[in-house]
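Retro notes, item 3 of 5
We never archived the inputs for the phosphoenolpyruvate complex last cycle. Fixing that now. Sequence and ligand:
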Amino acid sequence: MIVSMQEKATEEQIYAVIEVMEESGVNVHRTTGATQTILAGVGPTAGLDLSKFEVLPGVLNVHRISSPYKLAGRAFRPEGTVVEFPNGATIGGKQVAIIAGPCAIENREQIFTIAKCVQAAGAGFLRGGAFKPRSSPYAFQGLGIPGLQLMHEAAQEHGLLTVSEVMEISQIEPMLPYTDCFQVGARNMQNFNLLRELGQVRKPVLLKRGIAATIEELLLSCEYIMSGGNYDVILCERGIRTYETATRNTMDISAIPVIHKLSHLPIVGDPSHGTGRRDMVGPMAKAAVAAGADAILVEIHPNADKAASDAAQTLFLDQFEKLVGELRVIATAVGRTL
Ligand code: PEP
Ligand code: MN
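Structure as it came back at the time:
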């Protein structure tokens, strides 16, 4: 259930409503927007008589949520979520964010060269995998925490924030000092124990859509994180598996407006994994910005064709610089900045 408070509702009135909701056996999640406070009640609400809440002072209206995801749904924050980072950078506002870096952190020189390029392009986020979910156990698995330390150092030197994939619960703690945003990869979208644990973390989570997941399943996975009290979730469309073989995955651009309609959370377009092909990354990045993506995640490398993982989809640095210029034009055309 969602209880929308009146614009002028006082803190005392809000607390009184929370108390009645809790007495009725529901868990209350509060969000305070620019104009109004919304209280989401999660739990056994089916048998509750909503008029009991409607008559409380300060309440504007009360309704049941029919969708299975209560906190990820648009009604929880009708005005949309802007995820804010400690340095003031945001994802979900008017500005389209750029998250760029190698598929995997490989060595000091590689990540420092890339960080310099990411900063020069005006992007705010440096990505790189330290723990890599590879299809083959014999493929490069990533440098682990030492790799993450290198990326963190490079990011500090260039005023960037770091995004890196966490594959299991035991990695969260050691990653914390070096990670500004935890990525949950496609293969782990339904690792519910990991998601629950990330709900306890107070850092943003970038949740990628699973290889064969519906949008509803993505939003339900997100609910696992949010129900723990971590509301800073950024969703990511990274392509899904279809019968088409011309591209590595089929990038579902329509997921971007669909998610904006269903959810208040920001959505990132990842044309690198979305297509798996260097020559298709630019067109799909532009399509994603045109469709309303709040950020673009792209894999880049100074020796792209020699990258230790995902070489075929990785852009050379000059291609990335050119792409950012083009994305700026598209962003302006759709009323955004970049
Ligand atoms: C990645 O970002 O490098 C990655 C492994 O992504 P995904 O989980 O989308 O395959
Ligand atoms: Mn990759």
